[in-house]
Amino acid sequence: MRRSFKFLLRPTRHQEIALAACLEDHRTLYNAALEHRRTAYRKAGVTIRYGDQSADLKHIRADDTGGQGRWSFSSQQATLRRLDRAFRAFFDRVKAGRTPGFPRFKGRGRFDTVEWPRDGDGCRWDSQPEHPTAAFVRLQGVGHVRVHRHRPVKGRVKTIGVKREGDRWYVVLSCDDVSAEPLPATGTAVGIDMGVASLVTTSGGEHVANPRHLAATADRLADAQRALARKKRGSTRRRKAVARVAALHGKVRRQRLDHGHKAVFALVRTYDVIVHEDLRIANMTRSASGTLTQPGRNVAAKSGLNRSILDAGWGVFLTILSYKAESAGRELIAVNPAHTSRTCAACGHRAAENRLTQAEFACTACGHTAHADVNAAVNILRAGLALRRAARAV
């Protein structure tokens, strides 16, 4: 099993300058490679591929020993592969008939990660194992950078990445051969319904609160964004204002992750089988504005709903649930969410009139009443167990 471990870096001032220079040179390489592809196709109809650009990389490094030549060759190859993946994804979207989205040049605020594909090739995790108290990662051109290792690293380190988030630097380790840590069996199963009023409602009637972290920070964030709007572009004050907005967004992101981990761990510890809705969050949060010729309806209401869904962090929760369930040896089942909130869990009658309000469910056929989210969670659990039986029968 593959797992990722993310740790905060504690670089010195000189190392921080070197990390920023490394990130900037990799961004420049990415943009130059993108321009190379665009120009070759536009001028001569020639398609440039990763192999061609990787072969040119040694000449680029030889001509720029004080710039591109300072960094790991393999990390620069990883940046070229990143561009190649962007082009492959573009052509896949074209073939599928979706909005293509041609690869774009990366601005200073849109390139924040450098990857070393193999531990020992331009980088080394735990580069000073004899140190009694601290962990270090060695990066070519930067040196031995101190790491705040708050938990042990398991498995075999395969790739090492450095990421900048606001004014913080992180190292991300991708590890192979991480052994699972199965929890004791409980013999229970649960269905969970994702919501906005409550983040999760279980088929047993439990509700996991939705803290609404973004809404709680909305006033401070609005003040910071108004202050940013008044600053002159390129000024030192504007850079500080940008850093403040980024810090607030970063805090919201970390709070959302922390709450998601805690909620998921409680579920994984208690249940052997967890059934959830197979949600298409990107489709659910799509704008209702429409076009100039066909404007959408209830645009403001849909915008507020989209904001609430994204603030709840459904995608974050389901991602955490997926890998924690796998690590704990739990079974995770995704079911089609269609009509689960309108179907009676007692008699199976389906009608839009069954759900009176956001929280109330009253069956018009048998008179069964329940909390609407609990009723939906029971239907989700039954659908998941039916899929499980059918899969075992086959």
Automatic annotation (TrEMBL):
Residue ranges of every copy of the Probable transposase IS891/IS1136/IS1341 domain listed in the record: 181-287
InterPro entries the record matches: Cas12f1-like_TNB, RNA-guided_DNA_endo/Transpos, Transposase, Transposase_put_HTH
Keywords tagged on the record: DNA recombination, DNA-binding, Endonuclease, Hydrolase, Metal-binding, Nuclease, Transposition, Zinc
UniProt superkingdom: Bacteria
GO MF annotation list: endonuclease activity
Domain (Transposase putative helix-turn-helix): residue spans on this chain: 1-43
Regions crossing the membrane: none
Domain (Cas12f1-like TNB): residue spans on this chain: 314-380
Stored PANTHER family: RNA-GUIDED DNA ENDONUCLEASE INSQ-RELATED (PTHR30405:SF25), TRANSPOSASE (PTHR30405)
Homology family: In the N-terminal section; belongs to the transposase 2 family.
Protein name: RNA-guided endonuclease InsQ/TnpB family protein
The organism of origin for this protein: Streptosporangium jomthongense
